[in-house]
Amino acid sequence: MIRIELLSEKNFCSGSLDQYNRKQDVKKVYRRIDGEYTLVECRYTEDWDIDTKRTVAKKISSDDHITYIALENDRVVGFIGLLRELNGPYMILDMMQVSSECRGKGIGRQLFEVGKAEARRSGAEALYISACSSEETIAFYRAMGSAPASDPIKELAEDEPFDLQLICPV
Question: Which of 15, 33, 79, 128 has its CA at a distance of 20 to 30 angstroms from the CA of residue 58?
Fold first, then answer.
């Protein structure tokens, strides 16, 4: 049984992601070609080493974030990290992950819905997502109601030039 909880010192520590499986085998990504997003072949594997896991754990547990975690038998199998400070009408979805063995089970949907509810409570009009451009990632965000941002946040777009900038009304 999966539980979604607000991250706290009681349910999360610096080593909580040590066993987390970030692995994603990417085959196709979206790239902007002649002003349109087009799927192109681009094969690589995304994964995190222990140092990256610890860095991410520190980041999502900082005071800058509101983070919800998905727990299975007290093990973190997913999370959504939202930046606490709004950027205009947006709450920034800074990071969202579901452990590879748990994908396709609705955990991402649950986390995303909790993130949208948090954004509404905070007074945001939408979630802003600088999303990995992999085919699967973009398919997920589109299924959640996200669409390309008509006016991307310049700093985020420049920090991750291959990401797609998306908006999801809350």
Answer: 128
